[in-house]
Amino acid sequence: MGSVGVVEELVTEILSRLSVKSLLRFKCVTKFWYSLIEHPYFIKNHYQRNKNNNFGRLLVHNYDTNHKEFAFAVYSDETLADPVYEYLDLRLNLSPFIYGPCNGIFCLYNNVDSMALWNPATREFRPLPQVPRLNLPSSTGKIFQKILRNGFGFDPTTNDYKVVSIITFYENFCGYDSPKTFPIYAAVYTLSTDSWKVLEERVQANSVGNVFSIFFTYSRGVYYWLANDTNDQSILLSFDMGDEVFRNIPLSEDCLKGDRGAFHYLGLFNDRLCWIVTTGYDSDVPNYVYLWVMNKEYHWTKQWTIGPLIGLSSPLAFWKDGELLVVSGHWGLFLCDPSTLEAKYLGTNCIQAFVYHESLVSIKPRYGYQDKYGNSSNNIYVPNLFVVMPDPESGLVGSDFKDTTPQEQCTLMMLCKPVFEYLIATENLGQGQMLFSA
Asked: What per-residue confidence (pLDDT) applies to 172?
């Protein structure tokens, strides 16, 4: 293999270890770096490396009582110390309900009529077109279209992102909602086409999401909701992002058991669908949390029981080593150790909490599959290369490295060394020489 080919591989290896923030800066170094960082294969590998090598970041959707604003608190490392608050103009008018993350992407819904996709790492924000208006059924009262629930996920068969909205109607007669039941429909948004389509098949359920839906419940190409079928039996309703088909899945009787007043949640535990039951919501009542995990055959296995938890109510997410992120009756966020039951206050209030890994996935509109230089994303063209030799006294130099963190500089120095040694040994690059594009 020629020296340029070796350099390409090692540069790719170096860049794949850097943060999203640094990579966004480095896209302007050369055309090759731009094409590489934009390429779907690199984006996928970078995200997978990021996911494998660290547990992720905690993103908290909260309400800042001091500023009386909805905000996001980001915990940058696993110590969960010193959250950084961000007040983002998400242009949704109302505080959003958040679905995600899916490969670092979130879907936001303002509980009325607006949706958007958001990548916190790249700061990309993309409002979605309005959900289609369906033909109103005939009725004696005034009919309103209503979104019951949404789902968001990735279609692995087409490498595309989709949003599904479950839609029905309700009738307002003399100021009161009638008990009349209307059919349930669904519409699917596809990112690559930036458009919605209404599915012909109706959803075979009487209600969807009739219990809490705090958790994001997308797993391996399928989104799940709790629902009641047409016989009013509790079921799992699933939607396959690939074939765009709904399926009804029976629930285990063990999962449905619980004390009177217990709360039931559907969630994810180690990327597997789980069923969570909590027995107390009032802060004065000891709370027990029961967890069942579903296997591939839709059978449920009881994983553990945690409790009693005093003063803590709703679980929101799972942290490393099975630790539970849970809120108090006043929405304070705590991290609970399942073995010792010790609870640590994380210094913020919380509506939703998410463990996510930063991603380079772009949600910006794309025209075809070419970058701005006309290079196909399926075939990287390498017109030139820009390498800056390290200076033993001052370390890395050059516009592409000057803003890196000390940790990133160490990584770059360590990984660059064999590149330069190889080039010098093969007389393709002299000591102190700079190879760069014209």
From this structure: 67
Contacts with 106 (C-beta within 8 Å, 6 or more apart), sequence order: 98, 99, 100, 117, 118, 119, 120, 152, 354, 356
Q: What CA–CA distance (Å, rounded) separates 122 from 20?
A: 7
| CB environment 142-165: b (16+ within 10 A), e (fewer) | ebebebbbbbbbbbeeeeebbbbb
Indicate left, alpha or beta for 261 from its phi (over 0: left) and psi (-120 to 50: alpha).
Answer: left
Let me know: does 105 contact 123? Beta carbons within 8 Å: no
pLDDT at 91: 59
Closest CA to 400 of 11, 7, 80: 11
Q: For 297-337, write each residue's pLDDT tens digit.
A: 778 888 888 888 877 778 888 888 778 888 887 778 888 88
Quick one: pLDDT at residue 83?
Answer: 77
Distance CA(193)–CA(161), nearest Å, equals 10
Q: Which residue has better confidence, 163 or 175?
A: 163
